[in-house]
């Protein structure tokens, strides 16, 4: 999608965003408006507008997003106490940035 998509800019390194994880497929960084003490965004580098735009070929990306979230929960020390994973889909489902991303939130006492 290019310049118009904030998450494309972030994932391609065009911003000063600090990555907590990066590989060929994904980047992970902190949400700038956290809803919990731990609030990470797991973002594919490939531009996929929303869940509604997934193709069969994108299945490995979704699987990897979940597995990376699981590992980050362990690294952040919230795996045992619990965490929440969610994806907002379209504006009516709370999606604000139209680039697929998975939220990992946790850390409440």
Supply the number of helical segments.
2
Largest sheet, strands/sense/barrel: 5 strands, antiparallel
Low-confidence stretches: none
- How many domains? The number is 1
Q: Radius of gyration, rounded?
A: 13 Å
Structural class: alpha+beta
Average pLDDT for all residues? 95
The neighbouring-strand order within the major sheet is: 1-2-3-5-4
Please identify the top-level CATH class.
Alpha Beta
What would the principal axes of the Cα set say about the shape? globular
- End-to-end Cα distance, whole Å, is 39 Å
CATH fold topology: HIT family, subunit A
- CATH architectural group: 2-Layer Sandwich
How much strand?
A: 15-25%
In terms of topology, how is this protein built?
Blueprint lengths: L5 H6 L9 E2 L3 E5 L7 E7 L14 H17 L7 E4 L15 E5 L3
Antiparallel strand pairs: 1-2, 2-3, 3-5, 4-5
Task: Please explain how this structure is put together.
It is a single chain. By secondary structure, this protein is an alpha+beta fold. The chain has a single domain (2-106), classed as HIT-like (HIT family, subunit A). The protein is built from two helices and five strands. The chain has helices spanning 6-11, 59-75, and strands at 21-22, 26-30, 38-44, 83-86, 102-106. A five-stranded antiparallel sheet has the order 1-2-3-5-4, covered by helices on one side. Strand 1 and strand 2 form a beta hairpin.
């Amino acid at each position: 999608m290019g310049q118009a998509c904030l998450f494309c800019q972030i994932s391609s390194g065009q911003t000063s965003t600090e990555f907590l994880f990066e590989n060929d497929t994904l980047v992970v960084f902190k949400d700038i408006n956290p809803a919990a003490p731990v609030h990470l965004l797991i973002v594919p580098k490939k531009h996929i507008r929303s869940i509604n735009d997934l193709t069969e070929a994108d299945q490995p990306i979704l699987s990897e997003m979940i597995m990376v979230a699981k590992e980050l929960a362990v690294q952040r020390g919230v795996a045992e106490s619990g965490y929440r994973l969610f994806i907002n889909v379209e504006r009516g489902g709370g999606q604000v940035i139209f680039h697929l991303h998975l939220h990992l939130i946790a850390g409440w006492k």
